[in-house]
Design a protein that fits this description.
single chain; 317 residues; alpha/beta; five-stranded parallel sheet; 19 strands; 26% helix
Length: 317
């Protein structure tokens, strides 16, 4: 077991983590960033990013994260590959273990562990990932403009994705597992009042169909009758929720019922002094690269002010 003292520890990469690193490094805080299990975060699984400011022609997701990483390293971020596996926030400094064998005593911790989209678990989802299968209509819907698509889910997110896509696509199939939606009444009304959305009730997806060009359709099965049908679609959007990657903070940090970290409104402050939450780990609403980057900036600035106040306390003593 090795030990190390660090001023600013950033857990996780992606837009939030790298932005926090850029700001913290430029402030002379010598941040150490551990990339986590998926270096670069969810954007590394996205082919084309067209809605991030500053890239007028769009950019490949993995390349965008390389750009973020290089910018963070340019200012002196100590970037390391590793996974935070345990924390102890009962005292100060804050304790974090990486890969179970490296103990870090950190003066401040910025959490940027993100969230992972939930999928149906079909092998064909992996086969057609980024070839028609997506978990974000706002991110990828534009690529299916003028084409028929399907959305799986019954909550507010699925309803929002379906209505968003209905503005771009001639036909949107909304596949609902039961005979009712979980979405709020107002969102249900929006779906049902949108003429080009067809809700398919009591139905699950048996298989996503496609070829070398990508998704071409889906085979559905009715839960009550067992009847099967195929729909022709070019895009298949899974909207059954996200799981924030926050399990190791359970019992230490306040979080909602689904695991999203709670912060003081307008800040990145958690309930533990010196611990700041950024990006999708604390954002159940927007989940966009640009909003994640914004909160990454907030996390670094909040950490900088926290550390400055700590130093003033020491001087005063």
């Amino acid at each position: 077991m090795t030990k190390e003292d660090i001023k600013v520890l950033i857990i996780g990469s992606g837009p939030a983590g790298y932005t926090a690193a850029i700001y913290a490094a430029r402030a002379g805080l010598k941040p150490v960033l551990y990339t986590g299990g998926q270096p670069g975060g969810q954007l590394t699984t996205t082919n084309d990013v067209e809605n991030y400011p500053g890239y007028p022609k769009g950019i490949n997701g993995p390349q965008m994260m390389v750009d973020f990483q290089q910018q963070a390293e340019r200012f002196g971020t100590d970037l390391r590959y590793g996974l935070a596996t345990k924390v102890d926030f009962s005292g100060y400094p804050l304790k974090v273990w990486v890969d179970d064998n490296h103990e870090i005593n950190a003066e401040s911790v910025i959490i940027s562990t993100g969230a992972s989209a939930k999928y149906l678990g079909l092998p064909s989802e992996e086969t057609f990932a980024n070839k028609g299968v997506s978990a974000c209509a706002v991110c990828d819907g534009f690529f299916y403009k003028g084409q028929d698509v399907a959305v799986v889910g019954a909550g507010d997110t699925a309803a929002e994705e379906a209505t968003y896509l209905a503005n771009l696509c001639p036909k949107v199939y909304m596949i609902v597992r039961r005979d009712e939606m979980r979405a709020s009444k107002i969102m249900q009304q929006r779906v049902l009042n949108t003429p080009n959305i067809e809700v398919i009730w009591d139905t699950e997806t048996e298989e996503i169909l496609g070829d070398d060009s990508g998704v071409t359709g889906a085979r559905l099965v009715n839960n009550k009758t067992g009847e099967k049908r195929e729909i022709d679609v070019k895009g298949f959007f899974v909207a059954i929720g996200h799981k924030p990657n926050t399990d190791i903070f359970n019992g230490w940090l306040d979080m909602d019922e689904t695991g999203y970290l709670e912060v003081k409104p307008g800040t990145s402050h958690t309930n533990v002094e010196g611990v700041f939450a950024t990006g999708d780990a604390a954002d159940r609403v927007y989940r966009q690269a640009v909003t994640a980057a914004g909160t990454g900036c907030m996390g670094a600035l909040d950490a900088e002010r926290f550390l400055a106040a700590k130093e003033m306390e020491v001087v005063a003593e």
